[in-house]
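How a chain folds remains the central question behind the approach discussed here. In the encoding step, the backbone of a single protein was reduced to a row of integers, each denoting a local shape. We regard such an encoding as a compact summary of how the chain folds. The sequence in question and its structure tokens are set out directly beneath this paragraph:

___
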Amino acid sequence: METVIAYFDETGDDGFVNSSSQDFVLTSIYTKTENWQKNFNAMKNCRALLKEKYGFHSTVEMHTKNFLTDKNPYRNYGWTKEQKQEILIAFTKCIAEQMDFSIVNVIIDKTKITDNTYNILEKALTYNIQRIENDSERQWNYIIITDKGRLAPMRKTARAIRAYNPIQSHFAQESVNQPITGLIEDILEKDSEESYFIQVCDFVSYFVHLYFKCVMNKNPLPSRVQNVIDEQFISRVMATLKYYGRLNLKASKSNEYGLVIYPK
């Protein structure tokens, strides 16, 4: 059976108390192992071109939120607004046109949560893994690699849904148990600084967050982000990912970009 590698990263925090975000976005990208080297080379070449043109060294992590809000080390480069846009466009084109993987985005809208026992990370991870599992159709299995910081609760959730994963039946009101069977091993951890693929997750996740917050819900862009991009730019990034088939649209048929949004 073929094996797929899935990478995860998030935008926002998964708590209620002292929360800094109204939503939590968990993004996964997953690819066949046979495509791994091709994908790695595509991003490596993209970073080499960005180093040549803008001085953006390939060893510097692309952390999209900090990049857009002009935090260090990006502030030190002294890029213009237009140069920053060009870098974002280059990243988008590389991800969409040159790399071969699928993306699942799960959004937990914290403004819709009425139960203070609602486990945001557990729900987001469960919904995301369910979509990868569905996409596999039991034709391939997969391993998951995530950024540092939330490994213990993510492992606990993944272990739990191997045994109990209730799915709402289409033919009855009660749910049926469909344990996750395709996931190999515990979830593994890797520092995002050392992984182009987790950085891609971060890039997509942050743009999904901006799209949900500012395009779908009509909230204003953060002031520093406004200095670089607008809502139209965000929509173009999303449209490009869709056009080139990177988004798993089957993840949610109720959204044009396949965004899985809970609570309903």
